[in-house]
Specification:
There is one protein chain. The protein has 109 residues and is mainly α. The chain is built from 5 helices and no strands. It has helices at 3-18, 21-39, 43-58, 66-75, 79-108. The longest helix has 30 residues, at 79-108. It is elongated.
């Protein structure tokens, strides 16, 4: 599996399981740091892998996420409406960003 895809999937899984984007990003970076260093990627490729990790942590916001509660309460949404709107929207943004990042990674590789 390409490192950029692994970064996205791992950070998405961590985000969905425990709720914190910060923890998902830092844990994924720690898990992949040796592989990235050993692969000899250029600085731009490392930046793109980092972006993919960040986009993975952007999506799947739900009730374990403090940001979910800020958005739903500020906008006056119910939990159901928050899941239907904020969770879906943040996931679409994450996947879209990842696909664009993958496209750039393919060009520079």
């Amino acid at each position: 599996m390409p490192i950029i895809v692994a970064g996205f999937i791992i950070s998405s899984a961590l985000r969905a399981s425990q709720g914190s984007a910060t923890v998902a990003i830092l844990t994924t970076a720690g898990l992949l740091s040796e592989s990235i260093a050993a692969a000899g990627y250029s600085d731009l490729q490392i930046v793109l892998v980092t972006l993919a990790i960040g986009f993975g942590a952007l999506g799947l916001s739900h009730i374990n996420d403090s940001g979910f509660w800020i958005v739903t309460k500020y906008l006056g949404l119910t939990v159901k409406d928050g899941l239907k709107t904020w969770t879906v929207l943040s996931t679409v943004f994450g996947v879209t960003g990842f696909l664009l990042t993958c496209g750039v990674f393919a060009i520079v590789s």
